[in-house]
Structures are given as C-alpha cells and as structure tokens.
Design brief:
heterodimer, A: alpha/beta, eight-stranded mixed sheet, 19 helices, 8 strands, 56% helix, 12% strand, B: 298 residues, alpha/beta
C-alpha cells in the first residue's frame, strides 16, 4: 500500500484547492471537510459548490446558500469538537446570477449590457443548458481569488464526466463569444467571410437550410450584442487559466474504491497532466480496510474463536461469513487503489474508510475531517477501532 | 422507452442493463443506450467495444454507446442527404466553432439519436426495429438539464426546422404513454433527498412520467439487535481478528438499519412506487450481477 501523505503538508502555501471527481464519491463532503480542517487551523476559508443539489447546504446545516459567501456558525463545529480558529464561509453558486454579474461587469455601457441580458439566446444558455455551470464556477472562483478576502478557496466541481468541460470552460467561453469568425453571421459576404475561410458562405447557406433563417438571425444579434465585450472576456479567460495553472493552486482528485470511479480518476489525472495543471493528491472515500491492516490478517481460526467467545455457533457463522464478504470488498479496494497509485505515480493516497453511518450531517463531516487531517498510521488505527 | 436516471455512482448502468435483460427475456427486442464517452454497459457484457453502432449482446438485446459527434454527423447527413455536402460542412471552421461552442447541442443530438432508435420507421438505412429502448442517462445535476434540452432549443429557435425537430423530441420525452423514467437511488440521507427532488423536477418541470424509483444497494438484515449487543461487547473486549470481524458485523448491522430508515423516508416522499434492489457483496459487478438483479425486477 502506498504511503499516506498528510493533507496539511499537501495544502501548505496553497490559495486554491479544486476537488474533482465523478459523482457519488463524497466530493462535496470532502470539500467541506477540507475547508473546515483549514479553518480549524486558523485560515479564513471559503468553500464553493456548484452542485445543483443543495448537498453542501445540507452538510453545513445551512438552510440555503446564496450566490454570496456566508459565514458558517462556528458553534456548529464546536459542538462536534472542532474549534475553528479561523473562519469558515460557504457559497452555493448560482450560474445564472454569476453570468449576469459577469455581463454587467464586462459590458462597455448599460445599453450593451441590456441587449445581451434581454437576448433570448443568452437567457437560455445562461441558465438552462448544461455547461454554463462549469463556465461560471471558474468565473466565481477567479472573482473571489482576485478580491482576496480569503486565505483559501475550496471548490467542489461538477462530476468528472464533465471534467473536460470544466478544464476547458474559460477557453470555450471565449471561443463561443469570439467575434472574428462569427462576424460572418452579421455580414455573410465580404471581408468577414474571407477571414473565416473559403467556403464559409457556402457553409452558412447550408447551415441556414438545416437550422432555419430566424435562428441564424437571433444568433447574429446575440454575437453582435457581445461584440464589444470580446476583448474583455479573452483577457479574463487568460487570467483564469493562469490562476488554475498557478503553483498556489492544487487539484485534488476524489474518488471511490470501485472500478469505475477509479478509472475516472485516472482519466481526470491524465487530463490534468496534459493541461499542465498542478495535481496535489488523491483521496479515496468509502474504503474497506483489509484484515491485514486491521488485525494483522490472522483469520484462520476465526470461526472457532468466535464460536468460543460468543457461545453461539449460528451467530459466529454469520459474523464469519459477513467478515469474508467485507474482506472481498477490501481486496477489491486494495487492488483498485494500487492500480490508481501506479497510474497517477502518486506519492501517496489518502484512504477514508467506509464509515458505519452514512455521512450527511456535521457529525459525519467532522469524522471525515479527522481522517483527512491524520497521518497514515493514525487512519489505520481509527479504522481498526484502536483510536 | 425507459430512461434510467439518478445521481452518479448509484448503479444506473447496472439497473439499465438489468432492465434490458428483463425486457429481452420477455421476448421484446431491446436496446440499451449508453449516453457518454465511457462504455460502462458494454464493459458489463465484456464485449471489446460497443461504440456508435448497434451491437447484439444476447438474444433480443442490443447495446449502443451514443457519441455526440457521431450523432451530429449522422443527423446532418440525414438532413442534407448528400455525403459530400455534409463533409464540406464539417470541414468548415465556422460550423465547427458553432457546434463546439453551443452549449447543449451535444445533448440535443444525443436525444435525437435516441429518438431515431425508438422509431419503428427508422431513418437510418436498414435500421433494426426495437420494441423497447432503455437509456442510461447522464448523472443528475445534469439529468434534468439533459432531458430539458429539447424544450430549451425549441424556445431558442421559435420557428424553423430546429424548432419543429426540438418540439418533436420534447413531445417524445413527455409522451406518458410511451416514455417512462426510472430513478435509481441509494439508501442514504442525501441521495434520498435528491431523488425526491429529482422526481419532483422531472414531473413538474420537464413533464415526464416517473414510473418507478429503484432503491439500489440495500444491505441484508443479517444481525438482530440482540446480536449487535453481544458483538459490541466483543468488539470492545477483544483484539485481533475477533475484534475486526465483530466490527465488520456491527458495521453491517448499522448500515442495514439506517438504510431501512432511508427506505421508509423514500417511500413517504416519492410519488412513484419504490422497489428495492439488494447490495451485492461482489468485487466486480459484471453481467451475472445484472442478470441476478434482472430477476428481481418486475
């Protein structure tokens, strides 16, 4: 088993932590637990989630998180034995509101702002369509980082099926509103058409046949309305990319121990490396620890031993069978984690065990927090019930 | 058509394949559609690749992995009829810009392909006719967004061919006689909340019919309360293997019990009937696991 790093060391000197991974692996809880752990160590931390299900709000005992950061009542954590020496803030991102704010900031004047905000195509893409969440998460992260009110920002990302969307969001955003080649929409002949390349006018007429003239006209109006903001958007996207690639940013890959989440974690890590983004480490949740680590692995005499101690052969049999089932899962987990560590060339893997109770409240979050901010040995001792 | 949805990691693919096996066993010609680049369903069948073509997995059961780029190529070809014109369009920079940059377009052409598969009068040359189409939909968060895409596009394009085609797709999804949604949930606090919220949104915002909620991964009740008391004492007193085994048993007991409470909550909150599926203590969930689950489906 690869050695286990200490999370405080991994995050030392960072300003932005981005937790990425597929759905259902406890990413939101992990993000919140990391943020709480850093706040406990004296930092002013804000955790952002863009998950439309209000999971984080649930975990933090907040009724609703708005598009503004709100401070989490330190008494909530005190009750769980965690003293927040710093401050913990939380925010649930509203993609539509963030997009509107962004337009308002970038628009050269009120008229262009309103033209965009009132455009039917803008109204659809800014709220309803998949992809705009990723755009806006990066935007909000960048905005908060620029304002500099927090020592540390922890971002909970959407599931990694959209990992690429997420990493490419700033670039795609500028591509979408980029004026140069799309000016063809406004003037399908002449210079603009030449810029867009030969055949563009033919392509355009073919496209009109497929999508209809009115939609093209609406799109033209949309891009027209955006045209004054293109430079501002491009400059901004560049700065967002710079922040993501900065040595003070750290990507943590969060996953579960089953084959599929492990594969996705490997895939996401590869994308990070390709994009030259700073990978910090990997956290595997819901791990079954093997008997080897829990009790030295001496299980041969278990049925007889249990029958003797419990004085109940039937119960001893059931306990033995159940333990064998758990160990089968533990073997799978160990195999998958070894594969993961090899693929990621990870210096260490943080394994959070599958807890007996489902994690959905602050007590659970506090428990995850203790596992995350422990040494590898401490984790094993906790999982074995020795600490 | 059955759309299988739910949040990530709840076993949607396994349930979708199990539903497919069930329908196939009843003699219906069935296809399982996987919507994303990763071929989970095909991996379940240990086929090398399922890709963007219909592959026969077993009697009456086919699978396809719907790739949005391929769907787009196929769609444009069906519109233009001329391959050379399609290829010209795909070479043009402006088209590629627009296709890559328009949010939701991938989802739209994906749903378009699913619609095409479900037609008895297939658009694709020599297309097979299916009685049942099962869709392994993307994880929620995006799940409602995915199913809402046709309506969004129908609203953007107020008139014209995109409008009418998006409208056709929306009608197809919201046709309660022919299209139903199955939600897959896990017996945990937040997944139960999210599934109830998802059902609400699907019914009230998208307007689809939610036929059933599957509560997947339910632990068996292996130990009684009296057993647990005995094991608690053992876990505290002992070291070594007895302690580890007792703790594993207590963990099973604790989870089985809290899951029963979540099942009761889900039954209270969900409008559609709830059906439970057992947790399988198996390292890898392959086709045999799906087959066993398929026998538990009704």
């Amino acid at each position: 088993m690869p050695k286990s790093p200490h999370l405080s060391e991994v995050l030392d000197g960072k300003e932005v932590v981005i937790c990425a991974g597929s759905g259902g692996v406890g990413k939101t809880t992990t993000s919140a637990a990391i943020a709480a752990g850093l706040a406990a160590r004296g930092l002013k931390v804000c955790v952002l989630t863009i998950d439309p299900a209000k999971r984080l709000a649930d975990s933090l005992g907040l009724e609703e998180l708005g598009n503004d950061a709100r401070r989490v009542d330190p008494k909530l954590f005190e009750a769980q034995g965690i003293e927040l020496k710093g401050e913990l803030w939380a925010m649930q991102l509203d993609p539509k509101a963030t997009f509107d704010e962004l337009i308002a900031r970038q628009a050269p004047d009120e008229e262009s702002r309103d033209r965009v905000l009132n455009n039917p195509i803008y109204q659809q893409i800014s709220g309803a369509l998949a992809g705009s969440q990723e755009y806006m998460a990066m935007e909000k992260l960048f905005e908060l980082h620029t304002e500099g009110e927090f020592d540390m920002l922890v971002l909970d990302t959407p599931p990694s099926r959209n990992a690429l969307d997420f990493l490419e969001a700033p670039r795609r955003l500028t591509q979408f509103i980029e004026g140069k080649s799309l000016k063809v929409f406004m003037k399908p002949t002449g210079f603009a058409a030449k810029v867009a390349g030969r055949g563009a006018t033919v392509a355009l007429s073919v496209m009109k046949r497929i999508v209809g003239f009115d939609l093209i006209a609406d799109l033209a109006e949309f891009f027209n309305a955006f045209s004054g903001m293109v430079d501002g958007f491009q400059a901004r996207a560049k700065r967002v990319n710079k922040l993501l690639a900065s040595p003070t940013t750290c990507f943590l890959v969060v996953c579960g121990p089953q084959g599929e989440p492990i594969d996705e974690a490997v895939y996401f890590h590869r994308k990070l490396v390709e994009a030259e983004l700073p990978f910090g480490g990997v956290i595997v949740n819901k791990v079954h620890y093997p008997a080897e680590e829990l009790c030295g692995g001496k299980v041969e005499d278990l049925p007889a031993e249990l029958a003797d101690k419990l004085d109940d052969e039937d119960l001893a049999r059931r306990v033995t069978a159940n333990f064998a089932d758990y160990q089968a899962l533990a073997e799978r987990d160990a195999r998958n984690i070894e594969h993961l560590a090899r693929e990621l060339r990870a210096t260490g893997v943080i394994r959070v065990p599958y807890l007996d109770e489902d994690v959905h409240d602050l007590a659970g979050l506090a428990q995850i927090n203790r596992y995350l901010f422990a040494t590898g040995e401490e984790r094993v001792a906790m999982a074995a019930g020795r600490a | 058509m059955v759309i299988v949805t739910g949040k990530g990691g709840v076993g949607k693919t396994t349930v979708a394949v199990a539903l497919g096996m069930r329908a196939a066993a009843e003699g219906k010609r069935t296809i399982v559609c996987e919507v994303s680049a990763q071929e989970n369903a095909s991996r379940m069948f240990e086929h090398t690749t399922v890709g963007f073509h219909e592959v026969e997995l077993e009697e009456n059961l086919w699978a396809i992995s719907i790739d949005p780029d391929e769907s787009m190529r196929e769609y444009v070809l069906l519109q233009l009829k001329v391959r050379a014109m399609r290829d010209m369009l795909f070479r043009s920079r402006i088209f590629n810009y627009l296709a890559a940059a328009t949010p939701g377009l991938k989802e739209l052409v994906t749903i378009g392909k699913i619609w095409e598969l479900a037609q008895l009068d297939r658009k694709v040359k020599s297309g097979r006719k299916y009685d049942t189409v099962i869709v392994d939909a993307p994880a929620t968060g995006h799940g409602v967004g995915f199913l809402q895409t046709p309506r969004t596009f129908a609203n953007i394009a107020r008139v014209g061919p995109i409008h009418s085609q998006a409208q056709t797709l929306d009608n197809f999804i919201t046709d309660h006689d022919n299209t139903g949604v199955a939600i897959v949930a896990l017996p945990e606090e937040m997944p139960v909340n999210e599934s109830a919220a998802l059902e609400h949104d699907l019914v009230n915002e998208v307007g689809v019919a939610v036929d059933r909620v599957y509560l997947n991964g339910l632990y068996p009740e292996r130990f009684s309360k009296a057993d647990a008391e005995q094991l608690t004492a053992l876990a505290a007193a002992e070291e070594g293997a007895s302690k580890a085994a007792a703790r594993a048993a207590l963990s099973e007991f604790g989870r089985a019990r809290s899951q029963r409470a979540q099942l009761a909550r889900l039954r209270r909150r969900a409008q559609a009937p709830v059906k439970t599926l057992p947790f399988l203590f198996e390292p890898d969930l392959g086709p045999e696991a799906a087959r066993r689950l398929s026998k538990r489906l009704t």
